[in-house]
Structure formats: structure tokens, C-alpha cells
Design a protein that fits this description.
elongated, mainly alpha, Arc Repressor Mutant, subunit A, 5 helices
Amino acid sequence: MPRVSKGIYGKYNKADLEEAVGLIKAGKISIRKAAGRYNIPKSTLSDHVSGKILPGAKAGKTPAIPADVEAEMTKKIIQPPMRALASPGRKSW
């Protein structure tokens, strides 16, 4: 028999997550009740409340090359040097 998914993965917005975490930390609601009310997985709420996932954290590993260095490398690779395109004694078609 195939596994039936609840289909709530990733179908909540950041505002609901922040509101639910705030209520849980204030002690006004339990993790289980917040999960049901805001349609956020209990494990996700638990991770955010415990500090396992920091506020505003992005999923995945940090890149090995910083974004600015990668952009510079991409720019140099995609755009060929002007010297190669217009060398003296060679006609450009």
C-alpha cells in the first residue's frame, strides 16, 4: 500500500512560522496545537523553538566560494577578453 502524505511540507509562510514560534516560546500554546492551527510540521516548530534552526536561516550548506568571488569568476569566464577578439593584423568578421 503506498504511503499517504499529509502534503503540508513547505505550505506555510514565514509570518505564520514566526507567530507560532512566538506563541510557543511565550507559553501560550503547545507545539502540537500550533502545528495544527498553522499547518506547520511539529518537527519544524520544535527545531525552531529549541534553537536547532536559527531565525532567518537558509536551507543547505554554506557555499565553498563566496558569492562575490563566484560572480567575478563567472563574469570573466562568460565575457572573453577584448584582446582575443580584436588582435592586430587580423580581420574581424
